[in-house]
Amino acid sequence: MTTIVAIANEKGGVAKTTTALSLGAALVENGQETLLVDMDPQANLTLALGIQPSQTRRSVADLLLGNSSTLGVSRETGIPGLDIIPASGEMLLVERFLYVRQHYEHLLRRALSKSNMYSIIILDCPPSLGALTINALTAAQLLIIPTQCEFFSAHSLREMLDLIRNIRQRTNPSLRYRVLITMLGRTRVHRTLQEQIRSAFGNAVFETAIENDTKLRECPVVGKPITQYAPESRAAMQYRALAQELEEYVHQAVAQPA
Ligand SMILES: Nc1ncnc2c1ncn2[C@@H]1O[C@H](COP(=O)(O)OP(=O)(O)O)[C@@H](O)[C@H]1O
Ligand SMILES: [Mg+2]
């Protein structure tokens, strides 16, 4: 069975793309065939793997418009077991006109339903709650919400909970979610806010938190995930721990009926 995981937060710069890539790379180390899908027209995930969006012939746009199958749009990344469906600028147009199609929310789910050669599909969402994110949340069994321990994060977490409620009512009743604390520093403010998030969300927060690590900022420059660029770094270890925790969670919860 393929598990589809969306990574979303309407807030930008919270490590959605970093998490999609690092988690995907850690999962393939454990032998999980993984497909990354770059849902963001800004194509940061695509670029972080050294792929130029302007030079990709097919992208998520073709998948959503029904022009191509998953197999026709996906490509290898150079990391064995890890494939990607790249983003392209066309997705901005697609996002604007998707609404006019009937049942547009289900286009991605339908397109991915035949991709059973992957154990996990990771959808990296744009920092907005438009048609692309709605397609991702309709296709996913699990939503991961990366969040920083910052004062303004509480607001976007609330917005995300509203969105989950809405998606559950409209298109995907069994959508589950988990909060991931990212870019954690060692200051007192971070410690306090982490405690607040953990007590508010209980076991909906991954035990693994990702700390600040400047090595992660260097990864896109070299076009490699952290597990290859700095395999022994703290960030690589933490993303491996997250992969482990996710695998256990999928095994226990997602594979069972909601
Ligand atoms: N744990 C971390 N420590 C330090 N920098 C990080 C960490 N996670 C992400 N970053 C950096 O923060 C910036 C935003 O991350 P990104 O993954 O692009 O966020 P998003 O996709 O949510 O907009 C990037 O420059 C990225 O390299
Ligand atoms: Mg991003």
Task: Describe the structure concisely for a colleague.
With 258 residues, this protein is an alpha/beta fold. The chain contains 12 helices and 7 strands.
Walkthrough of the structure:
- By secondary structure, this protein is α/β, with parallel strands linked by helices.
- 45% of the residues lie in helices and 14% in strands.
- The chain has a seven-stranded mixed β-sheet, sandwiched between helices.
- It binds adenosine-5'-diphosphate and magnesium ion.
- Magnesium ion binds next to helix 1.
Radius of gyration: 17 Å
The run of helices and strands is EHEHHHEEHHEHEHEHHHH
Number of strands: 7
CATH class: Alpha Beta
Low-confidence stretches: none
Instruction: Give the second-level CATH assignment, the architecture.
Output: 3-Layer(aba) Sandwich
Individual helix count: 12
Please state roughly what percent of the residues sit in beta strands, choosing from under 5%, 5-15%, 15-25%, 25-35%, 35-45% or over 45%. Answer: 5-15%
Mean pLDDT across every amino acid position = 95
**Sequence of strands across the biggest β-sheet:** 3-4-2-5-1-6-7
Bound molecules: adenosine-5'-diphosphate, magnesium ion
Instruction: Estimate the global geometry from the Cα principal axes.
Output: globular
What is the helix content?
A: 40-55%
Ends apart, CA distance between termini = 15 Å
Query: Helix/strand-derived class?
Result: alpha/beta
Number of domains: 1
**Major β-sheet annotation:** 7 strands, mixed
